[in-house]
What does this fold into?
Amino acid sequence: MGRLMKADTLLLLQAAGVGALLAPGLGALAAWAGQRDVTHAAPLLVLPGALAGSLATALTLQGWHRAGGVDSGWPATRMAAWIVLHLLWILPALLGVTIFLMQSMGRVDVGVDVGGIDIDAGIGILLMLAAVGSAMVWGLPAYFLAWLGCRRFLARMMRASEYRA
It folds into this structure.
């Protein structure tokens, strides 16, 4: 199946899959740390995680292509670092909005009474909480997974460019 897809598409799908797996884990760990029973809501974080992973990778690929692709000399570590830098602002935003929506619909209790807080302050509080959790819990595993994916991606792109030459 991997041979039927372009390397860019395969890397995006890998990132979406990793995001879909790590985001509920992040939600469950945050629930455990906060002693809140929100593990039933963790599967709702699958979609934001998949979106964050694929969007972060797409932004990195766009920058890589703009820089010249294989000829730009980007190593796997640089690509992985850029993916994680994108994740550290995309994932908290998506998780914060998702948690806020779940709280306002009564699907989950995060211990913040959003009834007495205006909507901007509520979203701001949740985004700050998600940013801290994301930086600690998401960043390191995402870096190593992105690094492995980037190594395969760059190796495949080099083989493809050599084959064309």
